[in-house]
Amino acid sequence: MYVIMEKIKVDFVFVILHYNTVIDTKECVDSIAENFVSTYTYQIVIVDNCSPNKSGKELVEYYSNNEFVKVLISESNLGFAGGNNLGCLYARKKYNFKFLVMLNNDTLLMDKKFCDLIFREYSVSKFAVLGPKVITPSMPYDSNPGPSELRTIAYCKDYIFRMRCLLLLNMFHLDFFYKKMKHLFSKDDTGSNREVNERRENVQLHGCFWIFSPIYTSKFVGINDKTFLYREEELLFLRLKQNNMKSVFLPELKVFHKEDRSTNTINKTSHSRMRFFYLNMLKSTKVLLHELEGAD
């Protein structure tokens, strides 16, 4: 005899990808709890992406008596998309939710109107994915919104060539000099640092904080997981375009992003961090190129 477990009904499920930085994850969870009002319900799913410092076990113990938080531990590092998708799959099986929020563990909610703004925007625009104003500690101080057009096939091919060149230079510790010279001779585009305070539709949204509506979650579980790290924003934007789904940037909704806290723990030296970046950006750009070619 099979027992069918009824899903827990909630307004929001938050999926937080954890890697090494315990303090950031705890602060992220606290910011959710502090900015939620009693008229809405939520659950938090933390996915420990096989942290080498074993901090996932610490989080399991820390939240063992918290009815609003569930900690999952992955036996391998699944990358950004794969780790988040593990949490999304659990959320879909466990909860009957209205909105799924995928957020970095180094982000913080900043407003008690969080839920009201999301429900209001959804009633008006029927968005598939919503992105907030992402405030950062360094320039450009605001990561959203991104472009309104997809990357081109030509751009991807050029970028792949550049990553291969930088990987070669990195072997001889020469990539730093190349980047320094390029910076000296490049024009300072101050326009890219201006804040955007107007609501926009059908734009690319920063991957540190995505709010998925029923329009998206009824069709997809998570995001494209063919990459390990990088290009997630472009791949999601492409998926939305292919399925005639709407993205919305809502500047009234604000979050703070500490930026790259978990990524910076992967490699300690600047040289090894850059090599990690080149390798994964090369692989992810190849995936994006393949997806774009398939969309033609």
Question: Short description, anyone?
Answer:
This protein is of the alpha/beta class and 296 residues long.
Going by helix content, strand content and strand pairing, the class is alpha/beta
Give the helix tally.
9
Beta-strand proportion: 15-25%
Which assembly state applies to the chains in this document?
Answer: single chain
Whole-number mean pLDDT? 91
Number of strands: 9
Indicate the percent of residues in helices.
40-55%
Q: Can you tell me the residue ranges where pLDDT is under 50 for at least 5 consecutive residues?
A: 188-193
| Largest sheet features | 9 strands, mixed
Integer-rounded radius of gyration: 20 Å
Report on this model:
The chain is globular and about 55 Å long. It is built from 9 helices and 9 strands. It has 296 residues and is α/β, with parallel strands linked by helices. 41% of the residues lie in helices and 20% in strands. Strands 1, 2, 3, 4, 5, 6, 7, 8 and 9 form a 9-stranded mixed sheet that branches. Helix 5 (153-171) runs antiparallel to helix 9 (270-295) and helix 8 (232-242) packs parallel to helix 9 (270-295).
Task: Record keyword descriptors for this entry.
9 strands; globular; 296 residues; single chain; alpha/beta; nine-stranded mixed sheet
Produce the secondary structure layout:
Blueprint: E1 8-18, H1 22-34, E2 42-48, H2 55-62, E3 69-73, H3 79-94, E4 95-104, E5 107-109, H4 114-125, E6 129-135, H5 153-171, H6 175-185, E7 200-201, E8 209-212, H7 214-217, H8 232-242, E9 247-257, H9 270-295
Helix pairs in contact: 5-9, 8-9
